[in-house]
Amino acid sequence: MQLTGLLDKMPTTHAETVQYALPVGEARIPLNERLGQRISLRFTGKIFCLACGDRTRTSFGQGHCWKCFQSLASLDNCIVRPHTCHHHLGTCREPAWGEAHCFIPHTVYLANSSGLKVGITRSHTVRTRWMDQGAVEALPIASTRNRLDCGLIEHALSVHVADKTHWRKMLSGIEAPVDLRAARDRLFSMWGADFPGERVTDAEPVRFRYPVLKYPEKAVSLSAAKNPDITGTLLGIKGQYLILDVGVINIRTHSGYEAGITLD
After folding, report:
1. φ/ψ (deg, to 5) at 77
2. Are 236 and 171 a contacting pair, CB within 8 Å?
3. CA–CA separation, 22 vs 141, rounded Å?
4. Quick count: other Cβ atoms within 10 Å of Cβ 200?
5. Which residues of the chain have pLDDT under 50?
6. Residue 131: strand, helix, or coil
7. pTM for the predicted model, two decimal places
8. Which of 86, 134, 253, 264 has the smallest number of CB atoms closer than 10 Å to its CB?
9. What residues does each domain of the chain span?
10. CA atoms of 151 and 4, how far apart (whole Å)
11. What per-residue confidence (pLDDT) applies to 103?
């Protein structure tokens, strides 16, 4: 099979084993059935903005040109630092977009990906978020009516627990058990009466199993900039990474990159 097109974030489906597909233009290539097979990615050197479609020399914000990176609300700094939301100040880049995406139910969660971490996401995308981060288990701990309140909780809890995933550790295959419910209760005990959302105390951890034949002994990062022609055996998929016998590549960071894909 040979296809050429723009790459994008891999869609996932929660099943007994997480199901992955590789977007190449309009095509979606099921990947789980390709484990153990050879795959080649040959990047053409062309990058296109996922928002406006213009060609760009450099990708910003995972697949965007500089103009869109500077103008779209979805790429503003408050998206990665939600506690800094400034919609109420009247300075949102796209107020209507903010109302549609930020003033909806959000969830604060604990996850075990590269160890215990706290994070937030829109309530209707929690499982997608957990799979994108390579979490082996996750637990919702609070809900809010907007992104700002969720961000305030995350920012406060990040003093006590990590708020980022360490990708090399996530890809190591070493999954130390974490008692998420005990961690939730411990963090709740540190939060005062001004908790801005509703605590979730009756949820059960959600667990994930990823399609991996073998984890790398040492994760070597591959990228289009350094390795425009990548060929290897597909050993697994976790988070947004393809695990090959020659290294690992983050597909999401290559959103908007044009590549030719060859599969056995």
Report:
1. -60, -30
2. no
3. 32
4. 15
5. none
6. helix
7. 0.94
8. 264
9. 2-69+212-263, 75-202
10. 39
11. 96
Give me the pLDDT at residue 191, please.
78
With helix as H, strand as E and coil as C, how does 2-61 read?
EEEEEECCCCEECCCCCEEEEEECCEEEECHHHCCCEEEEEEEEEEECCCCCCECCCCEC
**Residue 200, CB half-sphere, CA atoms under 13 Å: how many?**
18
- How far apart CA 251 and CA 32 sit, in angstroms, is 15
Distance of alpha carbon 245 from the chain centroid: 23
Distances (CA, A) of 255 to 23, 107, 137, 220: 9, 26, 26, 20
Residue type (1 letter), 170:
M
Distance from C-alpha of 201 to C-alpha of 126, rounded to nearest angstrom? 17
Question: According to the model, what pLDDT value does residue 195 have?
Answer: 79
**CA atoms of 8 and 252, how far apart (whole Å):** 6
In the chain, the N- to C-terminal Cα span, in Å, equals 7
Check: CB of residue 108 under 8 Å from CB of residue 143.
yes
| 223-261 pLDDT tens trace | 999 999 999 999 999 999 999 999 999 999 999 999 999
Block residue for tokens 């419910």: 181
Query: How far is it, in rounded angstroms, from Cα 196 to Cα 201?
Result: 15
Helix (H, G, I), strand (E, B) or coil at 74: helix
